[in-house]
Amino acid sequence: MQLEREIVEFSGSAGANLVGILWFPSPNGPKRKILFILSHGGLSHKLGAHRVHYHLARFFTARGCTVFRFDPAGMGDSDGVIPTQVRQDLFGSIESGVFKDSYREAFEYLATRFADHRWILSGVCGGAISSLLAGVESPYPIAGYALISCPVVLDGTRFDYSRREPTPMALKYLSLSLANLISPAAIWRFVTFQSDYAWLWNNARSLLLRGKDKLSAKLCLPHKTGKADTGKPSMIKPAVGLSPIFVKAAHEAMQKSKVLFIYGDNDGFLWEFVDLYAVAHLSASQRDTVLRIIIHANHMFVWQQWQQQAFELIDGWLDSDVK
Amino acid sequence: MKPRGATQEIRFISRPSGGELYIALTLPVDNPQPSQLALICPPVFEEYSRSYATLREFARRLSAHGIGALRFDYVGIGESYGDPDTFSMSSAMADISFLASWLMERFPAAKVTPVGMRLGCRLMLDALVNPIRSGNPRIATPILWDPVLDARQYILGDLRATLAGAMVVCRAAVASREDIVRETLDSGFCERERYRLNQIDGYPITRELLCEAGVGNSDIWSFSEPVVVLLAISAGNGERQSKQLASMLPKMKFHAVQDIPYWNQPPIYSQIRENLFEITQRCMEQCN
């Protein structure tokens, strides 16, 4: 099927030129008045890591939707510079809404052409949280949010990342090595310094730390709670904690629109969504309404099979929830 | 030279053999007909995405110093036309060859410097070997950033990551790299538990690509014309890499550049590679 594409340039703040790509459905194919809007997670560009946004555009334009993918200021082909910073701080700034201005400018532009469409905000990881944070401040109605691997925490170098890996993930990874305990070849690799000791140690350390946290809680010993932005000086870094910015935005989005969160079950972000966010802020039925899990998928949905499954979930959700 | 501004033209252009290429042409703001242009041949697969911002900044820096730059996406990769399985070494070489001609036609007074990154170096040298060997005065000495010249080893190395992913999914080792190569060459794909394992970073590795990469033969690739090699290294002098490259690039001029690699995910997120940009620009000006 021949798809139509259009490179779009529009003005951002201070005259910066922002770049996006519109994909239209085929003139002879199905038509739905739905516009997808998405940006990306900070380390790639409008294509998305592993070409996921390209595949999303192809999937939904074949089903009659229009898809707009763009580079926020400083990213991809858009003007501007993201100041040099440690990756965790870059993620933290994205999770705090650094791309909201670029989204607002994109919304202004899109409103001149697609005001009669239902707008669905989407994205993977940083693209998902950016879409959520920008969408709840949009002056234009947002029909739904289809958010893949959306972070619920606030990153930053001020946090202790050794305390982030959830127990189930560490257990899952370590269990892969169980068979090696009786494999002569694996034992030989281990004693001849050929094994990936860092990987083994990181997972073992996660288990030890989680166990220690559990014990501290049982014995009611004081420990750092991981609360972000307390402003109190501390020699010990707190654990990465639930982002109040995400909590507020997710609440507003669910009040005004339909929301779908998709995670892979090989993604630590799923556990953070469930254990940090859903437990505290959603009822079980609310959680089951908004959460979908793709078996085996990892955080960035690297393999196309996982991407396809996510798109099919979104497509079904469009039909059933976002009518 | 005092830095000037840059303009950017982004568009699709038609390929001679069908489909469209996504290109970004960056030019000095005060000189739409620069005398020198860089044809930037990017890495492939996910290295392409990870290096995108760095290559954009490189293009802007060159234009600010009076040198134009063309970035593009290979067919099947990036925004260019085509499903990922349309990417092959021959299709990428056709894209490079076509864009070199396109640049020389659009800028009749300019000299083009091919600048390759990672596997883009190999694709670029293979694509432009004839005009370079024949001494075409419009094409300057190629510049290679961190060249990957042995496509076979590169693909086999990256398949290791695919197998690690498969191990997590299937909870056991379900195939070897040799299995993937053999089955893909035999039947076009290698599947376990409904997952295609003939892929790297989500990009399919086709039978055609494996054949073109020389999987299954032991011929040593080499390029006998002069080239400039820049290796971004965080420590050391790159002596070992230099020796390895010298066997394939006998007339290379080698520079080890202290800078952060741009094709993998660095601990520091920075789009600027000051040393790498500076030395590349200097080499381009000297080669012109």
Topology readout:
The complex is a heterodimer of chains A (323) and B (288).
Chain A: E1 4-11, E2 17-24, E3 34-38, H1 52-61, E4 66-71, E5 85-86, H2 87-95, H3 100-114, E6 118-124, H4 126-135, E7 144-148, H5 167-176, H6 184-191, H7 197-218, H8 244-256, E8 258-266, H9 268-281, H10 284-290, E9 291-298, H11 304-320
Parallel strand pairs in A: 3-4, 3-6, 6-7, 7-8, 8-9
Antiparallel strand pairs in A: 1-2, 2-4
Helix pairs in contact in A: 1-11, 3-4, 4-8, 5-7
Chain B: E1 6-14, E2 20-28, E3 36-41, H1 45-50, H2 52-64, E4 68-72, H3 89-106, E5 111-117, H4 119-133, E6 143-145, H5 151-170, H6 177-187, E7 191-192, E8 195-196, E9 199-200, E10 203-204, H7 207-212, E11 227-233, H8 239-246, E12 252-258, E13 268-269, H9 274-287
Parallel strand pairs in B: 3-4, 3-5, 5-6, 6-11, 11-12
Antiparallel strand pairs in B: 1-2, 2-4, 7-8, 9-10
Describe the protein's architecture and organization.
The complex is a heterodimer of chains A (323) and B (288). Chain A starts with a strand and ends with a helix. In chain A, helix 1 crosses helix 11, helix 3 crosses helix 4 and helix 5 runs antiparallel to helix 7. By secondary structure, chain A is α/β, with parallel strands linked by helices. Chain A has two domains: 236 residues, Rossmann fold, CATH 3.40.50.1820; 58 residues, no CATH class. Chain A is built from eleven helices and nine strands. Chain B is 39% helix and 22% strand. An eight-stranded mixed β-sheet of chain B has the order 1-2-4-3-5-6-11-12, with helices on both faces. A two-stranded antiparallel ribbon of chain B has the order 7-8. Chain B is globular. The mean pLDDT of chain B is 91. The chains are: A alpha/beta (323), B alpha/beta (288). At the A-B interface, strand 1, strand 2, strand 5, helix 5 and helix 11 of A face strand 1, helix 1, helix 2, helix 5 and strand 8 of B.
